[in-house]
Amino acid sequence: MGTNQVEMCPVARLIFVVYLLVTTCSASPPNFVLLFADDLGFGDLGCYGHPTSITPNLDRLAADGLRFTDFYCTSPVCSPSRASLLTGRYQTRSGVYPGVFYPGSRGGLPLNETTIAEVLKPLGYATAAMGKWHLGLGQNGMYLPTRQGFDHFLGVPYSHDMGPCQNLTCFPPDIKCFGHCDQDVVTIPLMYDDIIKQQPVDFLDLERAYSDFATDFITMSAKKKQPFFLYYPSHHTHYPQFAGPGAAGWSRRGPFGDSLLEFDSTVGNLLSTLENTGVLNNTLILFTADNGPELMRMSRGGNAGLLKCGKGTTYEGGMREPAIAYWPGIITPGVTHELASTLDILPTFAKLAGAKLPMVQLDGVDMTDILVNQGPSKREAMMFYPTDPSVRYGMFALRLGKYKAHFYTRGAGHSETTPDHDCHIISILTPHDPPLLFDLESDPSENYPLSLQGRPDLQALLQKIQAVREKFEATMEFGESQIDKGIDPNLEPCCTPQCTPKPSCCQCD
Ligand SMILES: *[C@@H]1O[C@H](CO)[C@@H](O)[C@H](O)[C@H]1NC(C)=O
Ligand SMILES: *[C@@H]1O[C@H](CO)[C@@H](O)[C@H](O)[C@H]1NC(C)=O
Ligand SMILES: *[C@@H]1O[C@H](CO)[C@@H](O)[C@H](O)[C@H]1NC(C)=O
């Protein structure tokens, strides 16, 4: 053999050595799967103590991964929470407030904001989003995921209750959706990229479509050895709950439980696909939810567990969420009490992928150390903005370490019906000076405001909280409100754009 060996010229040898260095030293960057449930409370999963939810796959992620006890979203409603998740910035900066986008909204997440997908794209990532977008649609679909760094999108551009649903089937064989949903707008479209595939969407088949889309995306990326980012903001468990034949009637918790079970089954399918394609060990799966439970739906809504109130409020139940990080071989199974947020996901993915951070004021911090070393959080504080943030009031509450100070409290329609009147809409905006102060470690339910009397330590703490608040608010530049740009019914997505009379004529199979 030796005699036949061709002697490499020095240049060829150098190229060969560089090639070896590149292929052996740079293990391919990790894949990311980001799961985002909708209106799911702190107490809704089996692994967070719900007695009758059936969530075996999420429970498996929790058992073999890291479960957070102190993880926050940034808003007690959908669109702003999603804006922060994808940009690592409070929604006040991007202008995704007050409230949420509607089918005919003129605005959207501004295109000059940098999403996680856009952070990863330059490194050669394949990117896909499926499920509920809710960050705008706009003129000619200008705010759809495909304009924000995602190669492909399969899903509904907003909430699946934002169109008449009284005649739609939510459970087999033909159980109509509960309630009427929004009237006088087009029925709910299912889109692929910027094309309407179906209107109204078939709820019984929707989860299967997502699961197949995810399987194809992961399989294709794995085959090409291309790193990928899959973002799955689910419709589950938002009102009106729905589920196909694989989940309907299988939970012990009624429509909410069936909807959650269907989501969990998709998580199971994702895990199998990652395993079968051999990429599970190089994939970080992160699960959390957009805001607290919609208590006004009563037993059809979610549950905040031991936390106070739910959706629409800045109490813990509105914004503290279940969260799980799973990465076999890298993340040591356990529970962490470190403070973390959806804001921190962009910097963390960027760090793990070796991507550049966008050159903007970020509110997120890298939480790699919490994930891989069970280390301390770099996050000092968490700010709580209401559904309608304003320069005048600023943040409603601030958490520093284990303490939370409420400067303002207010109930919300979304949190009606539980016995606690503080959660209800009759509890109007109330300023607190000095702020209501809670120790969330000894009183996570925010039941017992601390008395400052004879407590110089707490007086000093309040001064520190005040200083953190002022320093932060000095950096807060409110972006122009995208939602105040209003609604133009002509922008509602219609599969037969020229038909009359609108909106009811917009129907396609
Ligand atoms: C995006 O553009 C708007 C309008 O020009 C500007 O006010 C805002 O600061 C920009 N945002 C970013 C993140 O660059
Ligand atoms: C629902 O069905 C009823 C009865 O068939 C019909 O009169 C009504 O127009 C339908 N409503 C919508 C929103 O499609
Ligand atoms: C994945 O990682 C786990 C835990 O470190 C290990 O037991 C397993 O063999 C790995 N699987 C593959 C396919 O590398």
Explain how this protein is built.
Helices cover 25% and strands 17% of the residues. The chain has two domains: 28-380, Alkaline Phosphatase, subunit A, CATH 3.40.720; 397-478, 2-Layer Sandwich (Arylsulfatase, C-terminal domain). The protein has helices at residues 10-25, 56-63, 78-87, 91-94, 116-120, 203-223, 254-276, 316-319, 345-353, 368-373, 456-475, and strands at residues 31-37, 66-72, 126-132, 152-156, 169-171, 175-176, 190-192, 195-198, 228-233, 283-289, 320-326, 334-336, 340-341, 381-384, 397-400, 403-409, 430-439. It is an alpha/beta fold and 509 residues long. The structure holds 2-acetamido-2-deoxy-beta-D-glucopyranose (3 copies). One 2-acetamido-2-deoxy-beta-D-glucopyranose is lined by residues 278, 281, 328-329. Residues 110, 112-113, 360 line the site of one 2-acetamido-2-deoxy-beta-D-glucopyranose (NAG).
**Secondary-structure element order, as H and E?**
HEHEHHHEEEEEEHEHEHEEEHHEEEEH
Helix content percent band:
10-25%
Q: What is the overall number of helices? A: 11
Low-confidence stretches: 1-7, 20-25
CATH topology of the largest domain: Alkaline Phosphatase, subunit A
Strand content: 15-25%
**End-to-end span in angstroms?**
66 Å
Q: How are the secondary structure elements laid out?
A:
Layout: H1 10-25, E1 31-37, H2 56-63, E2 66-72, H3 78-87, H4 91-94, H5 116-120, E3 126-132, E4 152-156, E5 169-171, E6 175-176, E7 190-192, E8 195-198, H6 203-223, E9 228-233, H7 254-276, E10 283-289, H8 316-319, E11 320-326, E12 334-336, E13 340-341, H9 345-353, H10 368-373, E14 381-384, E15 397-400, E16 403-409, E17 430-439, H11 456-475
Parallel strand pairs: 1-9, 1-10, 2-12, 2-13, 3-4, 3-9
Antiparallel strand pairs: 2-11, 4-7, 5-6, 7-8, 10-11, 14-15, 15-16, 16-17
One 2-acetamido-2-deoxy-beta-D-glucopyranose binds at residues 164, 167.
